[in-house]
Write a structure and sequence with these properties.
It contains ten helices and 15 strands. It has helices at about 45-50, 120-125, 130-140, 160-175, 185-195, 205-210, 225-235, 275, 285-295, 315-325; strands at about 1-5, 20, 30-40, 70-75, 90, 105-110, 110-115, 155, 180, 200, 220-225, 240-245, 265-270, 305-310, 330-335. Strand 9, helix 5 and strand 10 (about 200) form a beta-alpha-beta unit.
Amino acid sequence: MKAIGFKQSLPITDKESLIAFETEKPSPSGFDLLVKIEAISVNPVDFKVRQNAAKDIVLEIPKIIGWDAVGTVEGVGEQTTTFKVGDKVYYAGDITRPGSNAEYQLIDERIVGRKPKNLSLAEAAAIPLTGLTAYEALFDRIKINPETDKGKTVLILAGAGGVGSIAIQLAKKIGNLTVIATASREDSKDWCKKLGADFVVNHHNLKEELNKIGHGEVDYILDFVSMEAYWETAIDIIKPQGHIVTITGSKKPLDINLLKDKSITLTWELMYTRSMFTTHDMERQASILNHIGDLLEQGVLITTLSTTLNGFTVDNLKEAHKLQESGKSIGKTVIVF
């Protein structure tokens, strides 16, 4: 089968940064499905792994990355119970296994959902990783209750990005929250408003911007850009007993003593945790993907697809990586095979 990967961590402009190669088509066993991939999307994690996984070495076998995928089940392992050959599925993958930048992939059915019927391949491929991340942040980490938390404020840092784009919708339409998103360019502001944000503020002078809209303090903060950059500001603007969820790491230690006076809760969200550690609730991700699929079919949520590239080629994958590395992409970039 054809796959695209890398042997060294090189700049995306380098000819060898991503290379096409042939490898053996895998066979499913256990809980695995063999999926013929029809569309993938690219996330920041893709270029971050590409930049760091082979910094000082040259791999003998190219590393296949990529996590969002849509495809058709072509084979099933002996322990599978949910899917059958011919089913259309979508998923965000497992960072410990070969990724979706290939014609076929093995994926544990416990982290796989059924593809939303009303979405195209590209529209569906845009959803899984960001959908799971946003959903887990709101409903598994903060544990938002749409009835008792109705009207509370959530600040979404980087509202126009992939995760922010689905988080705005989930927070507003499912969580019943008042949604404040950060965006600085006119196109990204318009995108956030289209998705349902009640307010869009510039991330520069954030405290001043929040005061202008009458929300100088917020109940919750979802950090999808840089906890290190916003650390002290976040603690300043969050209400006592508020909750911060971050998906970003920090290059330097953060002073958690600053959380004490307000009794602030800080939670990390990593979408890969359940699959990395085969947690007892691993199948929760399949349930979340199916719930999001239902909401998409009902028109409650809309796809966050913004850019479609046609053809599973090195050039298209490089272009998708460049878009992510620019830090200016809006919504999701998808490659249709």
